[in-house]
Design brief:
The protein has helices spanning 19-31, 46-52, 66-73, 79-99, 103-122, 128-143, 150-164, 167-174, 186-204, 209-212, 216-219, 222-229, 235-240, 259-272, 294-297, 299-304, 318-327, 348-356, 365-372, 409-428, 447-464, 483-494, 507-516, 534-549, 579-582; strands at 249-253, 276-281, 309-310, 330-334, 359-363, 381-387, 393-398, 432-437, 468-471, 501-504, 554-556. The chain is an alpha/beta fold. The chain folds into 3 domains: 10-143, no CATH class; 150-398, Uncharacterised protein PF01937, DUF89, domain 3 (Rossmann fold, 3-Layer(aba) Sandwich), CATH 3.40.50; 409-582, no CATH class. A 7-stranded mixed beta sheet has the order 3-4-2-1-5-6-7, sandwiched between helices. A 4-stranded parallel beta sheet has the order 9-8-10-11, with helices on both faces. α2 packs across α18 (348-356), α20 (409-428) packs parallel to α22 (483-494) and α21 (447-464) packs across α23. The longest helix is centred in the first third of the chain and has 21 residues, at 79-99. The model is unreliable at 573-583 (pLDDT under 50).
């Protein structure tokens, strides 16, 4: 059935307006293996996507440009889309012919890929980068290769290392500016010098000849490099790194091996300026892109990262990530993928790193297409830089969506400390301090009712318990806070040492709430208690941990053993992950 509507940009596409369109969008997502409801283990939830992409509840997002989405939804093989598929095909053919040595396996794999491509061209709905990733998986599994580019990547890293150790590189980066820098203070002069150094380092990090030839100095012309800097608008750097913004937490996305050595020069400059950097590498083979596994086979790369802290956990919690960035200036993670930027397949750790950052620095033209050349907005400022096919240095900035409010770590801790101050005063007045843990988002679509149930029962407790200060989480919600922020805030409160009683919601509590509300218990709520909530499960683990340090803490509610069905709350959402997802 042909698409019966048109759209100017991908942001115009909304779920829930037309069942025919909804079916088409679901078809598109399932064919690209991106639909969370079909495969929640591999694909990120809508809430996790909103860590990165600024989306409304009913918005649709596809990891491709607007023009490409237009042709894919219509299953129309236009000239530009055909060129994209052709580019992916040439990459695959070159890979097969260069690295699959045995004639019979090479012929079998080549013809298998040709069959797959013909199917896609007959009904073009697959995003070309998703098709490429699928074909790469076929090649690697059928050939037995794990990284066909390993030797080449080591060679590129060696060349780049030799280049940055050369006097020529030192002259390019450290030569004093000919023009006198305008400044009114030493602090401003320092900022101007930092900006100048950053401009030079960003430019050099995109010069492919620095790692693709043995003697880059012979092919690099300092005057030509200086000339290429002249027309570039570096004003975004001035705004993004303005001293009044203070130290930033930066997520850095490199592009290629060899170039990663020069990327680390950019990173070291950022660290020296007081910023903290999270650098994301690929999880597995994606041509010349650096991966987390390259450090095991490349001594040069391992030496470059010797002072970095690696987070191995692909599902690191907000606490773990923030603790790592507090204790280490440079943190390295995997983005969890073997393809271009695809929020649906990035790891939970990467999504949280994006959310906790102030700025995303992304190198490469592919990121320009994903971040800049799309109508979608993102939750963080994004700066993309690369050298184009004509050798021109390009830099583009997309500010974060205007409606996105970032709760900083300091803001969340301030809210937590405010609650702790109330607890301290209550204890000083001789009151018993109680925390009440209850279902909030465990029943999909009933968050408002859950909060009403929670508030009703806490009001009932307050009317019955004299001299008791009861903390009701439902009273501290603020628009913009997601589950990650709230769990981070509450854990600080819960571990403060001021709790006397920790009460967990029971089925009797829920029944009493509905009785007080003058309603019958709905079928979805029958038999439910706090053990049904992954958030409460996390809090029970915290309660048991606190009780070991404070044996006088009273834990009231279902027995701890009943909470063991669940391990983690749904990432960034109030609706919990299901038991089979967590177990």
């Amino acid at each position: 059935m042909p698409l019966n509507f048109s759209f100017e940009s991908a942001r115009d596409i909304k779920y829930g307006k037309d069942p025919v369109l909804d079916a088409l969008l679901l078809h598109f997502m399932t064919e690209n293996n991106l639909e969370h409801s079909i495969d929640p283990v591999k694909n990120a939830s809508p809430e996790q996507i909103r860590f990165m992409v600024a989306l409304d509840e009913d918005s649709f997002y596809a990891p491709c440009g607007d023009w490409m989405l237009h042709f894919l939804l219509k299953a129309k093989l236009g000239r530009d889309l055909a060129a994209e598929y052709g580019q992916q095909w040439r990459l695959l053919v070159r890979l097969i012919r260069d690295h699959v040595r045995e004639p019979l396996p090479r012929k079998r794999i080549l013809h298998l890929c040709r069959h797959k491509f013909r199917m896609v061209l007959a009904a073009p709905i697959l995003i070309p980068s998703r098709l490429l990733k699928r074909m790469l998986t076929i090649i690697l599994t059928q050939s037995g290769l794990d990284d066909p580019f390993r030797t080449l990547k080591r060679q590129m890293n060696r060349r780049a290392r030799n280049f940055v150790d050369s006097p020529f590189y030192a002259r390019l980066v450290n030569v004093c500016p000919e023009a006198r820098l305008q400044c009114a203070s030493i602090a401003q002069l320092r900022f101007e010098l930092d900006l100048l150094e950053m401009e030079r380092l960003l430019l050099l990090s995109t010069c492919k000849s620095c790692w693709t030839v043995d003697d880059p100095g012979a092919s690099l012309d300092p005057e030509a490099l200086a000339a290429s800097l002249a027309p570039v608008d570096f004003s975004p750097l001035r705004g993004l790194f303005a001293p009044e913004r203070g130290p930033l937490r930066i997520l850095y996305l490199p592009r290629a091996s060899g170039g990663i050595i020069l990327d680390l020069k950019v990173v070291r400059a950022l660290l020296r300026q007081g910023h903290r950097v999270i650098l994301a590498l690929k999880e597995g083979f994606y041509f010349d892109s650096p991966t987390v596994w390259d450090l095991d086979s490349d001594p040069i790369l391992a030496a470059e990262f010797k002072d970095a802290f690696f987070i191995q956990n692909h599902r690191a919690t907000k606490n773990e990530l923030l603790q790592a960035t507090r204790e280490h200036q440079l943190v390295v993670i995997s983005d969890g993928t073997r393809e271009r930027f695809n929020p649906y397949r990035t790891s939970v750790t990467f999504a949280r790193a994006w959310k906790e950052s102030d700025l995303v620095l992304a190198k490469g033209e592919a990121y320009y297409r994903r971040f800049i050349n799309t109508s979608h907005e993102f939750t963080r400022d994004v700066l993309v830089f690369f050298t184009d096919s004509q050798g021109k240095f390009r830099m583009y900035c997309k500010p974060k969506a205007a409606h996105v409010h970032k709760f900083s770590e300091e803001a969340i801790l301030t809210k937590a400390d405010g609650i702790i101050s109330q607890m301290r005063r209550a204890r000083a007045a001789g009151k018993t301090v109680m925390f009440y843990s209850a279902i909030v988002g465990s029943i999909p679509g009933q968050v408002k009712l859950a909060i009403e149930v929670l508030n009703t029962f806490v009001a009932h407790l307050r009317s019955r318990l004299e001299g008791t200060f009861i903390i009701n989480p439902g009273e501290y919600f603020e628009e913009g806070l997601d589950a990650d922020d709230l769990m981070y805030m509450w854990e600080r409160v819960q571990r403060s040492g001021f709790l006397n009683v920790w009460r967990f919601q029971t089925d009797t509590d829920i029944e009493k709430s509905f009785e007080l509300m003058g309603k019958k218990v709905p079928p979805a709520w029958a038999g439910k208690d706090s053990t049904y909530s992954t958030g409460c499960t996390k809090e029970m683990n915290i309660a048991l941990s606190v009780q070991k340090r404070q044996p006088e803490l009273q834990i009231i509610g279902p027995s701890p053993e009943k909470f063991l069905r669940r391990r983690e709350y749904g990432v960034g959402k109030y609706c919990d992950a299901s038991i089979d997802q967590c177990g």
